[in-house]
User: Fold this.
Amino acid sequence: MKKLILFCFLLLGLNPTKAQGIGSLLLAGEDGSLLVENYLNPAVNGLMSGMNSGWYSTAKTHKKLGFDVTIGMNASFTPSKDQMFDFFSSNYNYITVADGADELPTVLSDNESETAFNVSIPTLSGDLKVGSFTMPGGVASELPINAIPTPFVQFGLGLPYKTEVKFRYVPDLNYDAKVNGSSIGIGLQHDLTQYLGLLGKLPFSISVMGAYSTVNIEYAIGKNLSDQISVSNGLARFALDTWTIQALGSLDLKILTFYAGLGYNSGTSKFNVNGDYTLSYDLQDLNQNSVGTIIENISDPINLAFSSSGTRATIGTRLNLLFFKIFADYTIQDYNTLSAGVAFSIR
Assistant:
């Protein structure tokens, strides 16, 4: 399950060797969804920020049928406040932290300590279903500078009326045959300088740009998540949709371009774990005496929805070497993002 989490939210084949998978948290019953949400929330927000970044390196649009091919990378930094989350026991019905801690690492924490949980769920007969599981710590050590990377390949094409369309493809860095994923994006940029009369002759450009991206990933879950959980037809699905609209400005000189943008981001995502799961609990009476085991069957146990929105401001520069461009910019937003790349551009 940790492979699934890392691939879905970081889009990279990181090496999940340090901690036991989090699949055992299905033993937490209804509490499992809230725990997963708190653990993964910063990864989803960071991914949304990255998907909305790196769309431009100038406010100037291509001439008709001009084009560029860009290879780039966005890296969204995790705020320190989102590396840990507060565990309020009153928000959970069936689980407690074994050591009593009230602050736990999220998936993007640099705290790699695992957290042990105890589970106690009452049955209709008055006995208790009991169990335990371990949630992994953060994976920041597996990431460059604790930032969520979102690589992309982008194609831009000049249209009539000083308008440019952009198509984006995020490479599938699949390292596991169980994963099937795709990510695409489309953007549209329109030059406003053409409406400014003589000011349009200056090497300064302004434009507006809007873009949409979508990610869909499926992961086939193995037959056994732990000694206490077996799976039939297990499938996890992650879907993300992001939008951004921005006003752009650039000073386009022969060798250097200086550009900036101001706008708004929005995004939604869903994470579902589907299939049929067989859970095995120890059974205790109210005096904590073991009275056997109990088997429980559940279906489609996790259905989560995330959303994020906010303003953004970008500043960057580009080096122009004939047909080749090298650019880098920094965006201030909820998850500040560094973008960089190279492009082959004509007209």
In short: Confidence is low (pLDDT under 50) at residues 1-20. The first helix runs from residue 2 to 10.
